[in-house]
Amino acid sequence: MAAGGSASRRAQEARRQERLLREQWQAARWEAYRWEAASEGEQAVAAQLLVLTERGWRLLVDRKWPGTRAANVDMILVGPGGVFVLDVKNWRSAPEVAQGALRAGGQNRDEHAAKLLAVTRSAEGAVASLGMSPVAVRPLMVFAGRSLDTELGRIRLLGEREVGPVLLSERLRLPANSVRAIADHLERAFPEYEGSAVAPPASEPRERRTEPADGLFDLEGLRDAALEEALRAPIEQWMTFLHPDQVALVRRNWSGPARISGPAGTGKTVVGLHRAAHLAQRGSGRVLYITFARNLHRVQATFLKAMSPAVADRVDFRGLHAWAQEFLQDRGVRVRINGEKIDTAFGFAWKNVGRDSCLAEIDDTPGYWREEIDYVIKGRGITSFEEYAGLSRRRRRARLGREHRRAVWNLFEEYQSRLAEREVHDFQDVLALALAEARRETGQRPYAAVIVDEVQDLTLVGVRLLHALVGDAPNGLLLVGDGQQAVYPGGFRLSEAGIDIRGDRGQVLRTNYRNSKEILDAALAVVADDPFEDIDGLRTPGRRDVDLTYHDGRVVRVVKASTAEHDEALLDALRALPSDARRDSAVLCASMRAISHYQRLLDRAGMRVCLLEHYDGNPVEAVKLGSYHRAKGLEFKRVFLPGHDTDGLADARAPQEQVPDTVRERRELSRSRLFVAMTRARDELWLGSVRRDPAG
Ligand SMILES: Nc1ncnc2c1ncn2[C@@H]1O[C@H](COP(=O)(O)OP(=O)(O)OP(=O)(O)O)[C@@H](O)[C@H]1O
């Protein structure tokens, strides 16, 4: 359609909406004025809110507060924007918030805020039994005859004029059937208050309010449009609903460190985020939410803000290394990181004592030995050769005798002295320094709780560091992750970190809410023969039992004879998408080289690209592009994996006994990474390959 045509359609729609609103406003005012016992101010607020009831919201007025004898609740509103508990005030003096207190006419009015919070907690309890996240209920204090929009803790204070527009512009959180279910449930939990001052007249049939007053109202149409919009909504649209088992985890009281594990897509992150909001809402201290991946925390911060704006500023989302550097800086400890100098230091060390040692017989790629130092020696905080000589090198395949370990140790010492010579630290040093600092008793506890997402990506020293921040305090440390999605070498057991997870403090989620069966089956086939050991030391087979929630999805396999044909097929698939579907699509690659290649390809084809390192969780009208690593923890409706089998999948079919241990280890890691990338897809997974010449 021509642009002019769609602009005129939009203008027509805007006029229709305006007329509709005007009609709804008239009807609402008329109805509010029939609430004779209410003050004029309360009627004005009610009129604003009654407009919402014409737009898919349900308004419960003057309800009994369960568990009390005579107290009432002014209003509860349930709608696409969530659940709100309202207290309507008709004060003679203007309200103000000063130094965390509510005041009016020179007097402290905190008792009103306390009552509203207590009612909100009752409502949270009621919706939690429906499986709704407790953080989705929000308290509002609305002031008749005033104009304001401010906050007091988690309470939002709004004036008579602001309340309608603010609620109407809330982002979509609940679909229509959820609004119905919650409102029905709350109607039962908060029965009508006897002797109600503002209840609508009994003679007025309740249904009248939701029926069109005349032909101008197209309520059915509005609802259908809202529903359709929810289905089309970008993938970032946050889920407010949790399964009752997940809600229980969010609200649970743990007596010490706890852990949530489970296969890909089982809602671990959702639970972690709701838990962060819950703790921030309940306690007085700050919550630290840590991930290893460098941009994931930004995305998660955006999600939390959408989900629970009132608490968002009490949760710090950080990448582990950046946080550790800030922490050291705050404590006055100097660190110097310089990537180039670190590489040179290792390069020299390898040349001097590695290249001609017995290590080269096992694997002559220096990278393997650098990983040994990073993940095994420094990552596990090993400080003496004897300790290293007796170490069980978890998830490392090459068997090293004493002689080889001695050679690794020499390489490590040489590397350390080269770093010292250049006066630089590497990333492992930063964590070790931060750990030493965190263990120093300063009397300050910066955080009440620490939540670690994708914990399998951390090293042992990283986990020790975060544990040191909160110790074994109740509800202090929560570790969220899945060993099957480990994408870095090496590993450790929690017991080595001195973390004891026992009884109900170790929880496993089992229902995959993300992937369709076809997609999950394809992903599990890649790692089917790779049993793995998780941080609790349990060995688990690669093909795990997962419960599925049934929704459609498909796997598209495209095999071409040349890279050019393969790339053209990718472009065709992307071009075939409607333009608003591209924003929920991601092209993921195993290497940086491949990312540069596909960035050029998409640029040349005129397709807008958003690199994952720039993605912050807000919907963006572009195809996302990034590495398998960067895609960790994220999800997309459609995932495109060009050349997905160049690194790992095909190798899995080679006879294993002829392959050196270190190569097998690398391939295993490649398969884990591919598994992670594949399980990012919700509805469609596109797997591209270039046919290899069997003789080649
Ligand atoms: N109870 C639920 N009902 C419906 N959808 C849910 C539920 N719980 C989680 N989801 C959805 O399932 C998807 C996967 O959730 P999440 O990202 O938290 O899983 P995860 O276990 O952290 O995944 P991964 O380990 O693969 O990163 C998300 O879209 C989330 O909104």
From TrEMBL:
Binding, ATP: 262-269
Lineage: Bacteria, Bacillati, Actinomycetota, Actinomycetes, Kitasatosporales
Protein family (similarity comment): Belongs to the helicase family. UvrD subfamily.
Stretches assigned to the UvrD-like helicase ATP-binding domain: 241-545
Keyword Isomerase: yes
Catalyzed chemical reaction(s): Couples ATP hydrolysis with the unwinding of duplex DNA by translocating in the 3'-5' direction; ATP + H2O = ADP + phosphate + H(+)
GO BP terms: recombinational repair
Pfam family, one: UvrD_C
Coiled-coil boundaries: none
Residue stretches making up the NERD domain: 37-150
Enzyme class name: isomerase
UniProt name for this protein: DNA 3'-5' helicase
Keyword Nucleotide-binding: yes
